Amino acid sequence: MRYKLLGHSGLRVSELCLGTMTFGDDWGWGADAATSQQMFERFAAAGGNFIDTANNYTIGSSERIVGDCIRAERDRYVVATKYTLRLESGNPHDMNLGGNSRKSMLRSVEASLRRLNTDYIDLLYLHMWDFTTPVDEVLQAVTQLIASGKVLYFAFSDTPAWVVSYAIAKAESHGWSRPIAMQVPYSVLSRDAERDILPMARSHDLALLAWGVLSGGALTGKYSQPDDTPRREASVSEREAAAGAAVAAVARELGRTPAQVAIAWVRQQGSNVIPILGCRSLAQLEDNLGCLDVHLEQQHMAQLNEIAGFTVGFPLRFLHSAHVRNLIFGEGFALLDNHRSV
Q1: How far apart, in whole angstroms, are the C-alpha atoms of residue 30 and residue 75?
Q2: Which residues face 183 on adjacent strands?
Q3: Which of 21, 91, 166, 225 has the highest CB neighbour count under 10 A?
Q4: What is the pLDDT at residue 229?
Q5: Sign of the dihedral through C-alpha 145, 149, 151, 153
Q6: How far apart are CA 123 and CA 146, in angstroms?
Q7: Is the pTM of this model over 0.90?
Q8: Mean pLDDT across 118-135
Q9: Highest mean pLDDT: which of 81-95, 150-164, 212-226?
Q10: Cβ atoms of 68 and 35 closer than 8 Å
Q11: Which candidate in 57, 77, 83, 223 is catalytic?
């Protein structure tokens, strides 16, 4: 395992992140505590130090298991957790049990610290944008937490690019703590992030943490074979099945597994991109770690890029077209070495 700086910070993290939404079997399809411990230890033995969890994963069990795993060497690990989502269904009038507000953030962080059995959280994500809380309130609250030492860094997850860009501008203009990372779904099959989030992340020096890199198992081919183990979905669509078959074809050509090829595609999308591995068994994790030895050549990248039938749409497709560049630069664009992609 090699290491990267996490966005606009000096924090050093492993080039793969271990996702722990499967730590705990409270939802009916995760791993028990013993298996979770084995996966954690294998990831650590490979050099991994970056762990991702959330306050609501497996109804809090994920954080408790992670807390047990890191206890002996807490400072070795970079632990990311999230706030926003509520654990309890509760009374419909309990409006402040979730959301992005200061009250929700402080309440959630204190509970996460107890479950993780730690004094500090390395990276706190806003889990999902709620379209009700002012950006200023979020930034002021997290700046307070960072000043207290309970949180070290801040990031966004599942939030529109315009909100994150605005938050960065507000933070820098007011001297508040600015986000250093962004977490979004990103895979061979799900490339929406390329329209605005990925260019925004590169422009603002944000790390991009990719979840769903195997599209819930659709890209591994597991839904094309009989299997009685618990699954998050009963089946996949024809489009997903076709994508899985296409990834499998590249994998056979390279003598690799589909999971390794799919994760390698994500790894090669830029130096700021870090895949999150989500595994339910030690065997799955072993397979996923094999992506570190995979490099996809240009023809394989091109072949995989065709799977989703993806286009970036307007305005990027328009502005990056040869026609528009010719209107702006004439033939001179070909002579320009330091042009920016965003």
Answers
A1: 27
A2: 157, 209
A3: 21
A4: 59
A5: positive
A6: 10
A7: yes
A8: 98
A9: 150-164
A10: no
A11: 57
Whether cis (ω within 30° of 0) applies to the bond prior to 275 is: no
Residues 51, 78 contacting (CB under 8 angstroms)? yes
Strand, helix or coil for residue 182: strand
* Packing angle of the helix pair 238-254, 298-305 (nearest 10 deg): 170
Can you say how many angstroms the Cα of residue 103 is from the centroid of all Cα atoms in its chain? 25
Give the pLDDT confidence of 136-185 residue by residue, as tens digits: 999 999 999 999 999 999 999 999 999 999 999 999 999 999 999 999 99
pLDDT at 91 over 90: no
The pLDDT assigned to 342 comes to 59
Q: Are strands 17-19 and 121-126 parallel, antiparallel or unpaired?
A: unpaired
Query: Residue 226 pLDDT more than 60?
Result: no
Per DSSP, helices labelled H in the chain are 33-45, 61-70, 102-116, 135-148, 161-174, 197-203, 238-254, 258-267, 282-289, 298-305, 316-319, 322-329
Half-sphere exposure of residue 329, counting CA atoms within 13 Å on the CB side?
Answer: 14
Instruction: Give yes or no for a contact between 123 and 152, defined as CB atoms under 8 angstroms apart.
Output: yes
Contact 234, 195 (CB under 8 A): no
Q: Name the 3-class secondary structure at 119.
A: coil
**Residue 193: CB partners within 8 Å, gap ≥ 6?**
184, 185, 186, 208, 210
- 263-276 pLDDT tens trace: 999 999 999 999 99
94 backbone dihedrals φ, ψ, rounded to 5°: -80, 70
Residue 84 DSSP symbol: S
Instruction: Check residue 234 and give its pLDDT.
Output: 61
Which amino acid is it at 60? Answer: G
- Regarding predicted confidence, which is higher, 191 or 221? 191
The mean-pLDDT minimum among 158-167, 170-179, 238-247, 332-341 falls in 332-341
Here the tokens at position 306 are 């065709």
- For the chain, the first-to-last Cα distance in angstroms comes to 30
Active site residue 125: no
Q: Which two tokens stand for residue 22?
A: 């499967």
Domains within the chain, CATH numbers bracketed: 3-310 (3.20.20.100), 311-342 (no CATH)
**Cβ atoms of 90 and 83 closer than 8 Å:** no
